[in-house]
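Hi both,

Apologies for the delay on this - the queue was longer than expected. I finally got the adenosine-5'-triphosphate-bound model through. Below you'll find the protein sequence and the ligand SMILES exactly as submitted, and right after that the structure tokens for the full complex including the ligand.
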Amino acid sequence: MGQKNSQKKKNNNNNIKDEKLKRTSFEFLNIIGRGGFGKVWKVYSRKYCAQFAMKEMSKAKIIDKKSEKSVKYERDLLAIMHHPFIINMHFCFQDNDFLYIGMDLLTGGDLRYHLIKRRKFNEEETKFFIGCIILTLEYLHVNNIIHRDLKPENLVLNSNGYVKLTDFGIAKIYQKENHKETSGTPGYMAPEVMCFQNHTHAVDYFALGVIGYEFMMGTRPYLGKNRKEIKEKIMARQAKVKTEQIPKGWSIESADFINKLLQRKPNNRLGLSGSKEIKEHIWLKNFNWKDLYLGKIKAPFIPKQGGENYDFKYCNAGDKIGIKTEERYYQIKNSSKYIEAFRDFYYFNRYSYSDNEDENKRKIIIKNPHKIYEEEEKNIQRYENNLDNENNNNNIKKMILRNKSIDNDYFNKLKNNNLFKKEFENEKNYLILRRGASAKSTNILLKEYRKNKSLNSSLQSRRGNSTNISMVQKK
Ligand SMILES: Nc1ncnc2c1ncn2[C@@H]1O[C@H](COP(=O)(O)OP(=O)(O)OP(=O)(O)O)[C@@H](O)[C@H]1O
Ligand SMILES: [Mg+2]
């Protein structure tokens, strides 16, 4: 009986409601970021043997700023979104003073931190960052979500230098009548938002233009001490990177791209009709979106490894709260709405910790236009596995005869594969045909291949990384 009960208890541990997380479930290691309502901590969980980023937000401050709805909205959006370039939320809980959001810990630092240190980025780095942001925005916009607070501090790097978008505090599902919603950060805010007009996803592309300009020029296109001053600057003139201003090492196409995003009138702005026209801009013509999504491109900027990529002084500066504010917080804490306001602010993603994560079990209710890349990759993998299976010679033959084009895909994949590249960097005259297979099956492939392609028949077998590599010499 006792055993049964403990078994039942164990099973229930998987239940979201029973996952009683509290502050003491974590070791709070150090502060790695600061936000509008509190701090972001690096924490360690003994139970899950993992580190997380934990956003800690003061409930009194949220209520004081009348932001209860937007904080819940952020939680709701993070719970349904799932994309490699969007921060992954694992859990939410609360105590008397704070709300907590547990997320993937990104150790590369945010782009504001790096921009302050570096002042500017180069064209290659900027293109890579912008590429990541475009895929992220594409995902959001396909799902009718506008982020509305795109800026360097909300773009955090992982250790590989890939950008992830955080801070969905003012993101919203698009509604036609939204002219009253004017939250955001003035320097990145589109003119239509500043002027209380209805706005669309094009506001995110305006912010992307500001970011591109800032990375290139080291300063924002419209400067001012406050919202009013910035608005006046925007109203006065159309910002533009002039040809003579383009920094050394940057192309004319990059300036054209930024200028088109910065258009004050949304109807003239690149991206108004969707991400397709952005991706087709000449500056991004040869961008390999699939490899970017799959994380196969080596980022041009790799953040410091192991070290702390954040401004220690800024993150640890104490909050100065005046007596009046303190009194207001005291009253809020004693009001009846204090407990009610966040009653349901709990969340636990039970698939975060599962070894055999079955993504389909997640509550995916939104579309991912990039899933197709994952599917294609799986198909190529399957094909490759088949090739490597020596008992499968006939199938290989059939496959090639049935679908000749897959051959090219397979070749290109191998040619682009980092491991192979490293091994055969100097072997430009060879096409790598296949690996890990017997001479017999290689010959079948070769024969089929020779029928269609102009290749020399010389075949080499090489040992590389403990696998047999077969290569065909180019003519
Ligand atoms: N998952 C994470 N891993 C590492 N650092 C993070 C993570 N999430 C946020 N940060 C850092 O903490 C900072 C504040 O986080 P975030 O932007 O989510 O807070 P916020 O309260 O919404 O800020 P805002 O004042 O813009 O509303 C970020 O700028 C970033 O530097
Ligand atoms: Mg932020």
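Main takeaway for now: DSSP finds 19 helices and 14 strands in the chain.

I'll put the files on the shared drive as well.

H.
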